[in-house]
Design a protein that fits this description.
Blueprint lengths: L7 H21 L28 H4 L32 E2 L5 E8 L4 H7 L2 E8 L6 H7 L4 E6 L3 H17 L1 H6 E8 L24 H9 L4 H9 L4 H10 L5 E4 L5 E2 L3 H9 L8 E4 L2 E4 L9 H9 L3 E3 L14 H5 L9 E5 L11 E4 L16 H10 L3 E6 L3 E4 L9 H25 L9
Parallel strand pairs: 3-4, 3-6, 4-5, 8-13, 9-14
Antiparallel strand pairs: 1-2, 2-5, 6-12, 7-14, 8-12, 9-10, 11-13
Helix pairs in contact: 5-7
Length: about 450
């Protein structure tokens, strides 16, 4: 059998195809430190993967995010957006039980100090890594200082946190300007996996309107060991609430969860309201919370929200899951008054306080801390609100401001582990209740309906 030697023409064709293939490989997969347009990526070179252009979830739920490509940021001075660059998680202040280390002000918004001086209100919130994609919409509606406490379970989640926070600071101006981040890590942080199986680079097809999809891609970096640790250990909600709240530098703090979205223009409205408020320091100002169907558009006004409720596209928060969670707010009374849509007033006073009441409220930062023995889910917010009630706080419902949670909730959709954690915390409540009765020399249980 004889070998066939290719002629010169064939060799030339092969060489040309080889050169063309190398050219396109370099264009599509640029070397580390260079984007596909030849611009230097510098410190943001290892942030995010390319994503396909699809309809983002936030568009489906009535929220329009910027359509800017991340590519446009790679030619700016990236030194201004470095994320947690000099943070050493091997040390930090301990919580009271030495279970978690806390890094206060791990990353501070460029205008956070100035905006805190000029504002009476600050939004404090908390999140796990998985739910941080809600922050862009919260920050888009809340144009003022925001203090975010984040739980990072190990090195892998911390790396994801760096990637995603850098991405948010590049894509969303209010996060870069006014949002401050605090980090809480577990005591055995150093024992958790340190090696990531993949690394990501900025690609030109990445768009800023995909925060949820971006985070889901990044979450795939976590190893099985990290995920198993997360399943075995409860999420420290109350620790994070205390950290986020103390990160606010304003007179009034609005303490929420990361998936609670404030109404549009609420910062201006609340600042105008609190300029004229006179209270002895034991007042809590409740902002009503509603669930919105994902097919709806976020309501810009109270009137628009009322229309959604009439259409069955919105309802009071937890109304079907656990009605007592928000029942004392008296939504019927709040909805019966469609007043001036721009000026905040007190709609009414909460007179039918329920034991399991969990409103989202603003107050001077002298309210009792969230008790950190309640870990995971159940009795985390309502125990703190109950202590406020025992301590003599009065609750006033504000209008026309409101907050929303996307999705009409169903009880059967909740995982079994949430009920298990709820039962564990229920057993701790009797001791907690006896302590606060003794602390305030007040046992108001006969007053509760």
């Amino acid at each position: 059998m004889m070998l066939r030697i290719p002629n010169c023409t064939t060799i030339k064709i092969i060489l040309i195809l080889l050169v063309v293939n190398i050219f396109w490989l370099v264009r599509v997969y640029p070397p580390s430190g260079i984007d596909s347009n030849g611009g230097t990526i510098q410190s943001v070179k290892d942030i995010l993967p390319a994503t396909q252009k699809q309809t983002p979830r936030h568009q489906l739920v009535g929220f329009q995010l910027p359509t800017t490509q991340l590519e446009s940021f790679t030619h700016t001075n990236t030194n201004t957006v470095l994320t947690f660059e000099n943070i050493n998680l091997s040390y930090g202040r301990w919580d009271n039980q030495h279970i978690y280390k806390i890094k206060d002000f791990a990353l501070v918004g460029e205008q956070y100090a100035d905006s805190s001086k000029s504002s009476l209100v600050c939004l404090a919130t908390q999140s796990s890594i998985e739910r941080l994609f809600w922050l862009p919409q919260v920050a888009d509606n809340w144009r003022g200082p925001i203090s975010v406490a984040i739980f990072s379970a190990g090195h892998e989640e911390y790396t994801i946190l760096r990637y995603f926070v850098t991405y948010m600071r590049l894509c969303f101006p209010n996060i870069r300007a006014n949002t401050t981040f605090h980090i809480l890590v577990p005591r055995d942080y150093e024992k958790l996996p340190k090696v990531l199986t993949e690394s990501f680079n900025v690609k030109t097809k990445f768009y800023c309107q995909h925060p949820e999809r971006t985070l889901k891609i990044l979450l795939k970096l976590r190893s099985i060991n990290t995920l198993e640790w997360r399943q075995k250990n409860t999420y420290p909600q109350n620790h994070l609430r205390n950290v986020g709240r103390k990160g606010c530098q304003t007179k009034y703090v609005f303490l929420t969860d990361i998936d609670i979205v404030p109404s549009i223009n609420s910062v201006v409205q609340l600042n105008n309201f609190f300029k004229n408020v006179i209270c002895d320091g034991s007042c809590a100002y409740v902002i009503p919370t509603f669930e919105i169907d994902v097919r709806a558009t976020f309501p810009r006004t109270k009137s628009a929200l009322a229309i959604l409720i009439k259409k069955g596209l919105a309802r009071p928060f937890h109304e079907k899951v656990f009605i007592y969670n928000q029942y004392a707010t008296n939504f019927s009374k709040w909805l019966s008054k469609i007043e001036n849509e721009t000026s905040v007033t007190i709609s009414h006073t909460v007179t039918n306080f329920e034991f399991l009441y969990e409103p989202f409220y603003l107050t001077v930062d002298n309210a009792p801390a969230h008790d950190e023995r309640f870990n995971g889910y159940g009795f985390t917010r309502n125990s703190q609100v109950y202590e406020m009630y025992v301590a003599g706080f009065k609750f006033y419902v504000l209008s026309p401001v409101f907050t929303c949670h996307w999705g009409l909730q169903r009880k059967q959709a909740r995982p079994a582990w949430r009920e298990q954690q709820n039962n564990a915390n229920r057993k701790k409540f009797d001791a907690f209740k006896s302590e606060i009765f003794a602390r305030y020399k007040n046992n108001p249980h006969l007053k509760i309906k």
